[in-house]
Design a protein that fits this description.
7 helices, 267 residues, 5-stranded mixed sheet, alpha/beta
């Protein structure tokens, strides 16, 4: 079944700019989202989702009321929600295996929902900017195609990605929104920052560095964070990396070092 806007199937053969012009309400919604100052989300009731992680829960959850993620430059943050059950999933995608990741989050939300009854599946895409290598646009297109291939109708509600999330300063492009949160109880989505990115931030980050695939970090029925076992192989060329200064490491490792959020890039 297709990816839909206002009940119409999206023509993915058209450039994204043409699609936006055909559905101006999406551009207006993106503009409204961009205009909101980021809210500071404190740890109570928050489940923070890192890159290549996802979490899904429902309004019945007594422990988690907010799902959120940030530090997205070329990455995209995806929220998928079923309007009847309220089952909500948030994930932080980097383009490593987009089609498989979309199928995984679809299955996770559907496991908490009756998709043959009332309600519908709605998707919100936020992140990316006009980066020099067009990595953001590539990921945007991958996500649109992946949702379009799903067996269920999916309605695109928020589209604040790539050129719709871009600002320019001194000839350097930056994202406007680096992070978002979703209120699981109400479905409200808003720009957000997170003073704490735990629990177990270092352990979870190390998991990504092993080349891990997208991982579900939350058991909504037990209301427990869980991190499965993973294997750390010897780090190649470790002597080379230890000899580099911070600036060189940023240039080598980050996709868009000048556009990273302030606590990643120097200054």
């Amino acid at each position: 079944m297709p990816l839909l806007i206002n009940g119409e199937r999206i023509d993915l053969a058209r450039p994204a700019g043409d699609m936006i012009r055909a559905y101006p309400h999406l551009e207006e919604k993106a503009k409204l989202l961009r205009s909101q100052p980021p809210q500071i989300v404190e740890p109570k009731g928050l489940l923070y989702v890192q890159q290549r992680e996802f979490a899904v829960t429902t309004p019945k959850d007594g422990s988690v009321s907010i799902l959120g993620s940030d530090d997205a430059t070329t990455c995209h943050i995806v929220v998928l929600r079923h309007t009847d059950s309220g089952a909500t999933c948030l994930t932080h995608c980097d383009g490593s295996d987009t089609e498989a990741e979309v199928s995984l989050i679809m299955s996770s939300v559907k496991s908490f929902s009756n998709t043959t009854g009332c309600g519908r599946l709605e998707v919100h895409l936020v992140g990316g900017f006009n980066d020099d290598r067009q990595l953001s646009q590539k990921l945007t297109n991958q996500l649109l195609r992946a949702f379009d291939l799903q067996p269920d109708d999916v309605h695109l509600v928020t589209f604040c990605v790539s050129e719709l999330n871009d600002r320019e300063e001194k000839d350097i492009h930056f994202p406007i929104i680096y992070g978002i949160a979703v209120n699981v109880k109400t479905g409200e989505i808003f720009p957000a920052t997170f003073p704490e990115k735990g629990p177990d931030e270092a352990l979870r980050s190390a998991h990504v560095l092993t080349g891990a695939r997208l991982t579900n970090i939350y058991d909504a029925k037990m209301e427990q964070l869980h991190i499965g076992p993973y294997f750390w192989r010897p780090f190649p060329h470790v002597d080379f990396w230890l000899e580099q200064d911070d600036k060189q490491i940023l240039q080598l490792l980050l996709l868009s070092c000048f556009s990273e959020s302030f606590h990643i890039a120097p200054g």
